[in-house]
Amino acid sequence: MNVLVLNCGSSSIKYKLFDMPSQTVKASGGIEKIGMPGAFIKFSMPDGSKKIEEMPIPEHTAGVQKIFDVLTNAEYGVLKSLNELDAVGHRMLHAGSKITKSSILTQEVLDIFESCNDLGPLHNPANLKGVNAVKALLPNIPQVGVFDTAFHQTMPDYAYMYPLPYEFYEKYGVRRYGFHGTSHRYVSKRVCEYLGVDPQGKKIITCHVGNGGSYSAVVDGKCVDTSMGMTPLEGIMMGTRCGEIDPAIIPYIMKHANLTAEEMDTIMNKKSGLLGISGKTSDMREIQALRDAGDDRARLAQEMYFYRLRKEIGAYAAAMGGVDIIVFTGGVGENKQNAREAACKGLEFMGVELDLEKNNQVQGEEAIISTPNSKVTVCVIPTDEELMIALDTQSLTK
After folding, report:
1. Which candidate in 69, 118, 148, 265 is catalytic?
2. pTM of the predicted model, to two decimals?
3. Residue range 92-134, pLDDT digits in tens
4. Is 69 noted as a catalytic residue in this protein?
5. What is the 3-state secondary structure (H, E, C) of the chain?
6. What is the mean pLDDT of residues 353-372?
């Protein structure tokens, strides 16, 4: 079964073609700068080399058509024709509280998703463009939506509600929704497979740490709390997002700096976090290099970041009444040994004992990085959201 996974942004499309159920990746690539000068597609050739082609790509339908052309190219394509394509799975952002699991993209499901555009103004319309592009080119192929917010819809009301007047929830849907759900679902499931344990009875903290980052508390395989909120801005400090701050800071800065709501929103989402504190970069690798060179603001940015990683683990252990497994994933979580060490530092009181030597050896691979005596098992599990989407698509369309 050939399953194409698409992740459509406002000006980009990433894709992977899976052979299911073997889970073999047959092709992958992406398109950038849709609707802009210098648009291009980059993809892997059968010999493993990369190929880049520049061409005008005015909108998403043309982008999807180009992906189809690459997949069926006589020289380097992996399909003889589009008839060999069995289903398409989409990464989709914000489905609100009405969609609680991956779904066939019927008109009813798409209408619910589109009604959440105000909650995901950048991503939802772009996701819909991808769905509509496939529908225009292959009207009869089944399409599946895998929603970033779905995994978190098992949170109890006392965890997802904000202490604001209840009418804002009733009228405008103001509540915690959470994001990175496909990643949290994948790694919480995969870590149990890796350790050979049953998710039932296990309390797991999944730490998706990258340029964007979020934590989830998972009990018996279900999410009971997560750090991102109504939008991806809440939670831990991130590359360019501030994460949790005193909300009174917002009107205070707007008043004194004479900023509009849109300008303040841009500052919190795109000019804060590591970038805002360091004043130079949002990339943890560059932050480390600056710190090693004696840059004190880089030191401060990194220590703030690490501190908040550690604090969130403690909060979620308290929320669940303990923790059995801590999982690190995402670009920083999988590859930055010092971030994992700092996040676990001082947590010996709750049974966390990191194997420092093992931790320093692990980069981008599945591994246990706690000692054999640690009461809490600490693991690194690289995320694979595309595979999760392919699995759901296979399950719903086979």
Report:
1. 148
2. 0.92
3. 999 989 899 999 999 999 999 999 988 888 789 989 999 999 9
4. no
5. CEEEEEEECCCCEEEEEEECCCCEEEEEEEEECCCCCCCEEEEECCCCCEEEEECCCCCHHHHHHHHHHHHCCCCCCCCCCHHHCCEEEEEECCCCCCCCCCEECCHHHHHHHHCCCCCCCCCHHHHHHHHHHHHHHCCCCCEEEEECCHHHHHCCHHHHCCCCCHHHHHHHCCCCCCCCHHHHHHHHHHHHHHHCCCCCCCEEEEEEECCCEEEEEEECCEEEEECCCCCCCCCCCCCCCCCCCCCCHHHHHHHHHCCCHHHHHHHHHHCCHHHHHHCCCCCHHHHHHHHHCCCHHHHHHHHHHHHHHHHHHHHHHHHHCCCCEEEEEHHHHHHCHHHHHHHHCCCHHHCECECHHHHHHCCCCCEECECCCCCEEEEECCCCHHHHHHHHHHHHHC
6. 97
